[in-house]
Write a structure and sequence with these properties.
Blueprint: E1 2-10, H1 13-19, H2 22-34, E2 37-38, H3 39-46, H4 50-62, E3 66-68, E4 81-90, H5 99-125, H6 148-170
Helix pairs in contact: 1-5, 2-4, 2-5, 3-4
């Protein structure tokens, strides 16, 4: 589905500005999850115009997030297909060199949060027709007390666990009852907490 399934793009000051838009975040996520597509097909799925979708795909290409996809024979010759160029995107705090970088990072991260929320709501929309999956997932949160270093350690352990499960099942042939599963993880300091509040 992507140019290099194991690849990751590290956002820098330039590329951050290229992805800091809600529609671009959403389009890139769709190409990563569902494989190559055209502007018109993507527009139909998300309820926007193909002109707007096409513009944002070209912007994503300009910044290296997507590439044109030649694809198999049988596609219409005038159709322009796109695919994600990387499997994942990373944003390191060291990339935020200027106030403009910080603003672009906030726009990008808010777009990611909106995308995650939209995906969770879509899963809930399907809940009535997927009874066999109702006991398999979770919408949960936990409140624990950590310092920044322990939080980094926690995230690393969770990511390693997810990667282990992904590697174990990556080569498995899809069988009846199996489908892609999305794991969303948010780890953040509790908003509004002050030192006077209880831990």
């Amino acid at each position: 589905m992507v140019t290099d399934p194991g690849s990751r793009i590290e956002l820098d000051s330039r590329s951050l500005r290229g992805i800091a838009h809600p529609l671009r975040v959403r389009l890139l996520g769709m190409l990563r999850e569902n494989g190559p597509s055209t502007a018109s097909r993507l527009a139909a799925r998300i309820g926007t115009t193909s002109g707007a979708t096409s513009y944002h795909l070209r912007q994503l290409a300009l910044y290296g997030f997507v590439v044109e996809d030649e694809g198999p024979d049988g596609r219409q010759p005038r159709e322009r297909w796109w695919r994600a160029a990387h499997r994942a995107t990373s944003l390191e705090p060291s990339a935020l060199q200027t106030p403009e970088d910080q603003l672009a990072a906030e726009v990008y991260l808010r777009s990611v949060v909106q995308s995650y929320s939209r995906r969770m709501e879509a899963a809930l929309d399907e809940w009535p027709v997927t009874p066999e999956w109702r006991d398999s997932g979770t919408v949960s949160d936990w409140s624990i007390v950590l310092d920044p270093g322990a939080t980094v350690e926690l995230m690393a352990e969770i990511e390693a666990l997810i990667e282990r499960h992904s590697a174990q099942h990556a080569a498995a042939v899809p069988v009846e009852g199996r489908r892609p599963v999305t794991v969303q993880l948010q780890v953040f300091p509790r908003p509004g907490w002050t030192p006077e509040d209880p831990l």
